[in-house]
């Protein structure tokens, strides 16, 4: 057996010398995810693409051929596929320039940075003269755009978040917008060697930490957290957050010294919360009408 890494965790591969027959979770993973079990079956699954394919009409008639979206695909050899690809790249770069080439592969491909499909594609296209790239992603949502204005650059923050061990040992209240979904903790682009999501939650809960999950699904937080579940109407989380902030502001619970020494813009934000800016106080009653969460429940949480 040989140990391998996937996005879903490490596993020991079992082979008969020709085929991958089974996988076993790496013994060092305390909470292996069952997703690993799909690796062996996917390896030789009939739906797996086994060689290069080219759209039939394009192969017969070239660029601009009809049938896009409903055409059949024809298998070709790797040599022919590479010849077709190099010819098309040469044509597009020559006739239209780099601005006509979109380098947009989004797949993670294999675990690890070297095998990251998008990075390899971008390096390759840069050698040809450049390309049009995308900005941000659906995966990270608004975080890359919004967080720089609120806390800081997302990628700078990723390495500075509070460690789970600190939460397990010291935190008294965890309010999780979007929950603490086990499926999100199960996967990482570079691979996960040890899953321990339930462990730190259990340690925190056993110590008396209270969990509140704000999410459409109750099980977005593990049952071991015994979390209070708040399920606002989809898309209304911001109204709930504003109401929580309004209570803190109105009741004098804000850390004024911290706001003055470490932040800018609070007075403008406070005017919006208080309704000075638009005549609408963002209090729990206002949020309750939008979110469907009772006003008293919002106030209590705040």
> How many H/I helices?
14
Q: Biggest sheet: strands side by side, in what order?
A: 1-2-3
Give helix and strand order, one letter per element, not per position: EEEHEHEHHHHHEHHEEHHHHH
Q: Average pLDDT across residues? A: 91
Approximately how much beta-strand content do the residues carry?
Answer: 5-15%
Low-confidence region ranges: none
**Biggest β-sheet description:** 3 strands, antiparallel
The computed structural class is: alpha/beta
Distance, first to last CA? 53 Å
> Which percent range fits the helix content?
40-55%
Rg, nearest Å: 26 Å
By DSSP, the count of extended strands is 8
What shape does the CA trace take? globular
What does this structure look like?
The protein has 302 residues and is an alpha/beta fold. The chain is built from 14 helices and 8 strands. It has helices at residues 38-43, 56-61, 78-95, 117-128, 143-150, 154-157, 164-170, 182-185, 197-207, 237-250, 256-262, 266-274, 284-291, 295-301, and strands at residues 2-6, 9-15, 20-25, 53-55, 73-75, 173-177, 210-214, 228-230. Strands 1-2-3 form a 3-stranded antiparallel sheet. The chain has a 3-stranded parallel sheet with strand order 6-7-8, with no helix packed on it. The protein has a two-stranded antiparallel sheet with strand order 4-5. The longest helix is centred in the first third of the chain and has 18 residues, at 78-95. It is globular and about 70 Å long.
């Amino acid at each position: 057996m040989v140990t391998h890494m996937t996005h879903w965790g490490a596993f020991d591969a079992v082979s008969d010398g020709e085929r991958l027959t089974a996988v076993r979770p790496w013994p060092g993973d305390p909470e292996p995810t069952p997703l690993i079990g799909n690796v062996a079956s996917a390896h030789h699954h009939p739906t797996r693409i086994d060689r290069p394919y080219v759209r039939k009409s394009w192969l017969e008639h070239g660029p601009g051929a009809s049938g896009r979206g409903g055409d059949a695909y024809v298998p070709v050899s790797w040599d022919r596929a590479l010849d077709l690809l190099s010819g098309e790249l040469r044509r597009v770069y020559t006739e239209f320039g780099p601005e006509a080439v979109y380098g947009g592969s989004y797949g993670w491909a294999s675990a690890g940075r070297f095998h990251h499909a998008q990075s390899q594609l971008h390096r390759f296209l840069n050698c040809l003269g450049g390309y049009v790239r995308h900005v941000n992603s659906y995966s990270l949502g608004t975080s890359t755009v919004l967080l720089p204005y609120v806390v800081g650059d997302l990628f700078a923050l990723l390495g500075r978040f509070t460690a789970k061990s600190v939460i397990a040992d010291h935190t008294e209240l965890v309010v999780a917008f979007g929950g603490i979904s086990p499926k999100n903790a199960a996967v990482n682009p570079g691979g996960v060697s040890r899953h321990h999501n339930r462990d730190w939650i259990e340690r925190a809960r056993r110590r008396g930490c209270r969990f509140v999950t704000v999410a459409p699904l109750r099980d977005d937080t593990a049952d071991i957290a015994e979390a209070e579940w708040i399920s606002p109407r989809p898309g209304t989380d911001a109204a709930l957050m504003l109401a929580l902030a309004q209570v803190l502001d109105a009741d004098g619970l804000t850390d004024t010294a911290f706001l003055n020494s470490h932040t800018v813009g609070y007075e403008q934000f406070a005017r919006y919360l208080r309704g000075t800016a638009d005549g609408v106080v963002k209090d729990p009653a206002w949020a309750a009408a939008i979110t469907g969460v009772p006003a008293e429940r919002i106030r209590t949480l705040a």
